[in-house]
Design brief:
Mean pLDDT: 89
Strand content: under 5%
Oligomer: single chain
Number of helices: 13
Helix content: over 70%
Radius of gyration: 20 Å
Number of strands: 0
Length: about 300
Amino acid sequence: MKQSNQAYVYGVGAICLWSTVATAFKLALAHFSPLQLVLVAVTTSIIALGLILVVQGKLCLIKTQFKARPFFYLQTGLINPFLYYLVLFKAYDLLPAQQALSLNYTWAILLPLLSVPMLAQRLRKSDMVAAIIAYFGVFVIATNGNLTSFTFESGTGVMLALTSTLLWSLYWIINTKDKGDPVVSLLLSFLVGFPFILGTLLLTQELPSWDLKAVAAGIYVGLFEMGVTFVLWLVALKKADRTASISTMAFMSPVMSIGFIAWILQEEIAHSTYIGLGLILSALALQQLLPLLNKLKIKSGTSHSH
């Protein structure tokens, strides 16, 4: 199989798995508190990523990468998995899955906005247009389409879902400075974050129950939200001729997720969710397309001048 075709196979695999995790979050949270779920999922992910590194013959890199930049991994570990997943799972606990999922997808809009002050990047018109459209979509979802009443089903849930996008964007911005192997870096973040998760849990709650259904749901989240799927996605990006062609496939994920939420969780999907998610996805598409159109305009302009 050609490398570019392999890229699509890995990419589609990652997208399909990511599409199921919003449903898995809700099923797991029926048995666990958000913090208990973080513990079970992160433990699973550490084991899975460790095994992947054994297979890849890269286990020796853990020590060298950590010794080179311990403070860097302290930062990433505190953000992801500790704070990010705690905030995200709490948002899923408070909101219908369709709302939490849609709001969480705005991280891709926030990322370029935060890159302006943090990475000294230029703010593009397309980013501003995308942000306005996307956050209008957020408002539609958060208010259940009652735009004039300003009433939220769970204001705290909405705030937490949007905070998760901030944490995820910060994690990616910090990661732009990472020169190490990405799978090793992810495992190191999880290893550093683990004591904070366990310590907080022991101080505030009891350990999770070992009910088979509950543990299975937690393991599923650990494998397919955090661990294996991330590696599939990395392989897809590496094998792709053009990163953009794989990246745009990520748009399929929230749409498929809504299907799983309706089918498995039996959530009735509100009209406001369809409209809001449509606006968010349109904003993401515009963010990708407008710079390309501008480039084409400039190219055609220079060719005419010749």
